[in-house]
Write a structure and sequence with these properties.
By secondary structure, the chain is an alpha/beta fold. It has 15 helices and 21 strands. The strands form 6 sheets. A 7-stranded mixed sheet has the order 14-17-18-13-12-19-20, with helices on both faces. Strands 9-8-7-10-11 form a 5-stranded parallel sheet, sandwiched between helices. Strands 5-6-21 form a 3-stranded antiparallel sheet, with no helix packed on it. Helix 3 packs across helix 7, helix 5 runs parallel beside helix 6 and helix 10 crosses helix 11.
């Protein structure tokens, strides 16, 4: 297939028909109140669509339909192999509509079209197909019993799942949850971020086209304090799964206690340390990786390598390599396939990132790269990838999740000090270690309080590896077979023979 140019994507953007309504029980529908909100593109400030602003009435309708569908057994009691077939068709439809979904993703949240097309959409489809493939290969258990007893250990779908997903990887984060939730037989109500709801709305129709029954997968766009809160408090939502900020994650735990003690699984914030020892096997590779770890997806990544810990003896040699590597990450029009840094998701997030850059200056850190808004004439929300040197771990830019392309460089003198600095945060989502010493790599990885540790690379892993955090980065795991634990109840059945 011929590679599309920026002009091609811009023409497709003009021709794109965007659906902004909620999806309940197999139909697109306006919010009960009739309320809408404007979906503005961070690429250039254009109005993309007016989107249904759902609230408690819409949540009630969606939950009632999801519960009725679940209780009917049309999906929840369907043979696993048949659910698998539908999930594989769902994944195939994402691939068949990849260009449309990629364009929606880029226009909606500002990421480069090359990333949307080559990373996000394939990753989302893979999450659906991987979970679907697994579901008819997971066996239940028979307990070790006396000869006149039979103990069965079985898994059953939990029921109605509310899934609240973030704006930085809207489609992929949704499918990380939809894959195991749907494959295990649940009914799902997806609440996308109001900052990037468009792909979630679009794929709801693809699910029905794939053969997933109406009412199994519903989408409620709207705000967290309205429809999100309604789902969190609803007495007939059995499980709530969430990816987003630690602040909202804590609120959802409270809502669970205030309602029906629904299970709450959370993937929250991060302030991930990227530790480079003096004996790193390839400093150039480490520098290029460090640049990508903060600039990819505009730094709007929960696992962004936002704290670069460098052994003091190589800092003067290593930091210039990182600065040089970061020059290859330059903000540009996201519809240009050559662009690798797009726009921040909206003006609010851009201003947040710029305020952290000001805080870095105020706390005495030394700006050595970037630090400014750019491409302002486009009407979009672009910020240069930024590096601060001379950062101490007590500084605001080292402790708080910025969710933008701002890197803090911190020096250390020993492995013990590196681990102490790395763990000195409320977060524990991810970390990386660069060393040629295999023992040091293992010992450091064991000592780091993080759900994922990468050695001599950054952001490794695939669907086979669990993803989630320690401490205030959350609980539970996405991806891998461990994700199925969130969407099933374990039942013991003991039979006297």
């Amino acid at each position: 297939m011929t590679t599309l140019t920026r002009a091609d994507w811009e023409q497709r953007a003009k021709d794109l028909k965007i659906e902004g309504r909620a999806y309940i029980n197999g139909e697109y529908t306006a919010a009960v109140s009739g309320d809408t909100f404007e979906c503005i593109s961070p690429v250039d400030g254009r109005l993309l669509a007016t989107v249904a602003s759902c609230d408690a009435d819409d949540a009630q309708r969606a939950v009632e339909n999801a519960r009725a569908t679940f209780n009917s057994g049309v999906w929840s009691r369907l043979a696993p192999a048949k659910r698998k077939a539908a999930m594989l068709r769902f994944a195939a439809l994402l691939k068949a509509n990849a260009q449309e979904l990629a364009l929606l993703e880029t226009l909606d949240m500002g990421k480069p079209i090359s990333d949307s097309l080559n990373i996000d959409v394939p990753g989302a489809a893979n999450a659906l197909s991987w979970s679907g493939e697994a579901i008819d290969k997971i066996y239940d258990e028979v307990a070790a019993t006396p000869h006149d007893q039979l103990g069965l250990v079985t898994r059953e779908p939990v029921g109605v799942v509310g899934a609240i997903v973030p704006w930085n990887f809207p489609l992929m984060m949704a499918c990380w949850k939809l894959g195991p939730a749907l494959s295990t037989g649940n009914s799902v109500i997806l609440k996308p971020s109001e900052k990037s709801p468009l792909t979630a709305i679009r794929i709801a129709a693809l699910a029905v086209e794939a053969g997933i029954p109406k009412g199994v997968f519903n989408v409620l766009p709207g705000y967290g304090h309205t429809v999100g809160n309604a789902l969190a408090l609803h007495m007939d939502v059995d499980t709530l799964v969430f990816t987003g900020s630690t602040k909202i994650a804590k609120q959802l735990l409270i809502r669970s206690g205030e309602s029906n003690m629904k299970r709450v699984w959370l993937e929250a914030g991060g302030k991930s340390p990227n530790i480079v020892f003096a004996d790193a096997p390839d400093l150039q590779a480490a520098a290029e990786s460090a640049a990508g770890a903060i600039a990819f997806n505009q730094g709007e990544v929960c696992t962004a390598g936002s704290r670069l810990l460098v052994e003091r003896s190589i800092k003067d040699k290593f930091l210039p390599l990182v600065i040089e590597a970061l020059k290859g990450w330059k903000p540009g029009n996201p519809l240009d396939p050559a662009t690798n840094v797009g726009a921040l998701v909206d003006t609010q997030q851009m201003n947040t990132v710029l305020s952290y850059i000001e805080a870095g200056h105020a706390d005495g850190a030394k700006l050595v790269a970037g630090g400014k808004r750019t491409l302002e004439e486009t009407g979009g929300t672009y910020v240069e990838p930024t590096i601060f040197d001379g950062v101490t771990n007590a500084m605001k830019i080292a402790q708080e999740e910025i969710f933008g392309p701002v890197l803090s460089v911190i020096t250390f003198d020993s492995a013990e000090e590196a681990v102490k600095i790395a763990n000195d945060t409320v977060y524990g989502l991810a970390a990386a270690v660069w060393t040629a010493d295999i023992s040091k790599a293992h010992l450091t990885a064991k000592a780091l309080r993080a759900g994922s540790v990468w050695v001599n690379q950054y952001d490794g892993g695939d669907m086979t590896a669990p993803f989630g955090g320690f401490k205030q980065s959350g609980n539970g795991r996405d991806k891998s077979l461990h994700a199925f634990d969130k969407y099933t109840e374990l039942k013991a059945t003991w039979i006297k023979l």
